[in-house]
Structure prediction request, 370 residues.
Amino acid sequence: MFKIPLSYNEIDAKALYEVLLKYQNLNHEELVLDLEKLASSRLLNKPVVALSSGTAAVHLALMALGIGSGDWVVVPTFSYVASVNPVLYTGAKPVWVDSEPTTWNLCPVLLEQALRKFNARTKRIKAIIVVHNYGVPADMARIQEVAKQYGVPIIEDAAEAWGASIQNEPCGTLGDIGVFSFNNNKTITAFGGGLITTSNSKWEKRIRLLAAQARLPKSYYVFNEVGYNYRISPLTAAYGLSQIQRDKEYVSSRQQVFGQYCKQLLPIEGLTSAMALDGHIASRWLSAFRFPKRTKVKEFVKLSDNQRIEVRIGWNPLHRMKHLSGYPTFLNGTAEALFKEVFCLPSGQNLTQSEQENIIIALRHSLGYK
Ligand SMILES: Cc1ncc(COP(=O)(O)O)c(C=O)c1O
Prediction:
């Protein structure tokens, strides 16, 4: 086990106990409903459905849009695999689109090329998945412009971006459907669980139906189609409730950790980070930096590993995975470069000042700066 984990969240036993005491004589469903209400209050009061994971949320977002066999979906190649697995569950196929180098997220220029190629005559790409990597908002204005031009809906995979915003609108509320994850390493955790938000009441209804085994609301059991067991558990919802209540504090703690790293590290020539565009606020789920001297990055990761400090390099581009490599790509080399040059530093709740200082010293040393 790592001495300093990448993204640790302390178990807040007291907070969970307090929530459980408050709800112990109520219907369990109240916990889920109240989690949805609280989450909605953070998401411009848009309707919210709580689910068992962020992956389930991406899956049901695709299902709500009617994505299925034979359809194509734009997926950023620079992301975690959970952005694409649900596309494959539906029988649809990914069209890989690379990142732009400023935010490290979906490149609007390549997105346009993909849509032009696939959708000029037939609307073959049926959805666009946009990810806000590490909590840094994507260039949504330009992405939305392109999506609108071709009439393709956007699924905003904001799994890593609770607390990030664009012109005061939370990431996850800007696309047609937004998705969040509350897994144990996220800024806001419920030790599992996820959320989906959409203003489209038809999609919301469909998501609720599919998440509950597609059981029709009758006094006897009746089902007309395949459904899923994707509802959040009330116990997970209880923990989520306790954590969302304090979300500003948790988001700000990660932003401060990032700020401290920046202060000490950005004077190093060549070292950069993904940037928040004008009017964008990054939540900095993970403090991620980029350094162009690749052997030095490798050395630092090895050294950290030896010292049991958990440092992760950037996402391995998904189109490079054997089983994901046969699909169309729109690449510019950014994801490939990020994979070799990006590293994520410990950013968790329990990171102490002295631990952070030690990480900074080790990093400066590895990169050849004193
Ligand atoms: C971009 C992205 N999408 C989706 C997910 C899936 O979330 P979960 O782990 O809750 O299934 C994650 C996190 O794991 C993620 O980072």
